Amino acid sequence: MVSRVPTGAGLVVDVAAGTAGVTLALASRSPASRVVGVDLSAPMLGEGRRRVAAAGSAGQVRLVCGRGEQLPLPDAAADALTFTYLLRYVPDPAAALAELARVLKPGAVMASLEFAVPSGPIWWPSWFAYTRFLLPVAGLATGGPPWWRVGRFLGPNISGHYRKYPVDWTVRAWQAAGFTDVGYRRMSLGGGLVMWGTRVG
Questions:
Q1: How far apart are CA 9 and CA 11, in angstroms?
Q2: Predicted TM-score (pTM) of this structure
Q3: Taking Cα atoms as reference points, which of 83, 55, 54 lies closest to residue 68?
Q4: What is the DSSP secondary structure assignment for residue 103, as one 8-state letter?
Q5: Cα separation of 126 and 115, whole Å?
Q6: Are residues 32 and 94 in the same domain?
Q7: Are 79 and 141 in the same domain?
Q8: I want to staple 199 with a disulfide (CB 3.0 to 4.6 A). Which of 75, 108, 116, 140 is the partner?
Q9: Are residues 71 and 141 part of one domain?
Q10: How confident is the model over 83-131, as pLDDT tens digits?
Q11: Sign of the Cα pseudo-torsion (56, 58, 60, 62, in order)
Q12: Which residues constitute the domain of residue 78?
C-alpha cells in the first residue's frame, strides 16, 4: 500500500493511523513530505507519538485525533492518502469514501489495506478455522481475556462486512466517490486486500 504513494507527494494523510506504523513508513518513503496521521483513539495516538519521537520524525509527522467520516482537513489539501482497516468500522462506508475524496487534490492517489475473506476449497476453511478458533485461543494464551474477545470479534466482523459490502461493491463505491483507475490486489492467500485509485480532476 505504501508503495502506491508517490515519493514526491507534498502532504500525505494516513487515516486510521493507530500507533503510526503506516504513518512512519510513509514518512520514511518520502522524507520531503509532510505526513498527517488521523485516528479516533487518543490512547493509540499517544503510543504513536512516542514512536514518532523515537524515530526522530516529529518535525515531519503530525498525529491528530479525528474521525474518518469527518476529517479535520480542508478541501483538496492532500497530495496522497492512505487508510488501513477503516471501512469495517464506519456506519456508512460510501459516505466515508466521499469524505476521504474531499480532502484530496485532483490527480491525487489513495490506497488502502484491509483484511479480506479468502475463497476456494482449501483457503476459506483454513481461514475460517484460524479466525474462529485458533486466533481467539492464541489471544487468550498471550494476552488474557481482552485478547480472547478481540480474537472472537475479528473473524465474524470481517465476514459480516464482506457479506454486506463485497469487493465489487467497494470498487463501485470508490468510483462513485470520485476515483478513477480503481484497482485491487489480494494478498496473503486472499486474507488481505490492497486497493488504490486516483482522484478525478
A1: 6
A2: 0.92
A3: 83
A4: T
A5: 15
A6: yes
A7: no
A8: 108
A9: no
A10: 999 999 999 999 999 999 999 999 999 999 999 999 999 998 999 998 9
A11: positive
A12: 2-115+165-199
